[in-house]
Amino acid sequence: MKRAMWVTLLLMLLIAALALASGYGGPLSFDVKPNKTFKQPTPKINFSAKQIANLKAKKPVCLLLPSPSDPELKAGYMAAIVPYDPVTVWQVITDIKHFHLTDPSYPNTGALTDRRRTFMPYVRDGAVCSQGGSSYLYQLLVMPFVAPRKYSLKRYGDRNGFPWESAWTAASELVCADRRNQEFDEYFNEAVQITHNNGCWHIQPVPEAWRTKPEDALNTYIEYYVDTNPGGNIGQIKSIVNRATSTALPSLHENLVFHSGHWEQHLKKHHSAAELAQWKKERAEFRAAMGF
Fold first, then answer.
1. What pLDDT is stored for residue 271 in this prediction?
2. Domains in the chain: ranges and CATH
3. Which backbone phi and psi does 187 adopt, to 5 degrees?
4. Which of 97-101, 206-210, 230-234, 238-242 is the least confident region?
5. Which segments of the chain does DSSP mark as H helices, in order?
């Protein structure tokens, strides 16, 4: 009996430690905070009737907006309703150590060399590490017709009340790049380093005005925003950014929906039993908080 109690206690402590170690997002709260302050605010969008209809039909709204950092560039914005709960969607968008994993069901948005199908379009390689108490993500992008790009992002998370925020800024140095897959150094060595990349995911339950049935409260409304200067030739940059709304952002939405629907299988394959248990626990808590 004592041994069983100790095993149970150890598992509980492991789950709690995992939540702290993943640390990403800090305290968990399902309260709605309409005046919440964000690390990376998203632009206020006045959706048209057609765009609202698309959102209700679970079609993404993808836009190019003026970049606050460079008048010659554009920022990318996407809004969508995802038919899965915020706990699952949050885990998908913060599973940064697996962004470079391929899946045959993802859209064909990889490099022309092999059409890699990764969660984040065009990602060839990635690595994650911690430095100074912060989480960093290194990524190598290989895109059609232009030189590869490489960067490291300092990550920030906040789940203390909706909308939850996963945000990032570009680091001045290539943090975590020492953990890269050196099989891709032919791309790494010719890659242009991106030094400006600010962005975020904001996620929350579907707003009441857009719900058609009570169960819609369990779905997720997401906003994705990125303002970046990829560096290099300005003409090529504009071509890359302009393709974002027609290719990369819709593909990212497809990947998010697919991955959210297969998240339990992903957890069982790539994560620990404690992480699987934590996901199930948080999902149950969210449903209870929403009255289900």
1. 95
2. 24-289 (3.30.530.20)
3. -85, -40
4. 238-242
5. 2-22, 49-56, 86-93, 185-188, 234-243, 249-261, 263-270, 273-289
pLDDT digits (tens, 9 = 90+) for 164-192: 999 999 999 999 999 999 999 999 999 99
Does residue 97 carry a pLDDT above 70? Answer: yes
Read off the DSSP letter of residue 246: I
The candidate with the shortest Cα–Cα distance to 241, out of 4, 63, 55, is: 63
Is residue 199 predicted with pLDDT exceeding 90?
yes
Q: Are strands 149-162 and 25-32 parallel, antiparallel or unpaired?
A: parallel
Would you give the distance in Å from CA 43 to the centre of its chain?
18
The encoded tokens of residue 275 equal 């992480």
Residue 210: φ, ψ to 5° = -105, 5
For residue 219, the one-letter residue type is N
Kindly list the distances between the CA atom of residue 246 and the CA atoms of 57, 67, 76, 78, 140, in Å, as whole numbers in the listed order: 19, 18, 11, 11, 22
For residues 250 and 32, give the distance between their C-alpha atoms in angstroms, rounded to a whole number.
Answer: 28
Q: What is the DSSP letter of 207?
A: P
Which of the 8 DSSP states describes residue 119?
S
Task: List all residues 6 or more positions away from 77 whose beta carbon is below 8 Å from its beta carbon.
Answer: 42, 43, 45, 62, 63, 64, 65, 223, 224, 225
Q: What are phi and psi of 159, to 5 degrees?
A: -115, 25
pLDDT greater than 60 at residue 13? no
Q: What is the mean pLDDT of residues 119-128?
A: 88
- The average pLDDT across 139-143 equals 88
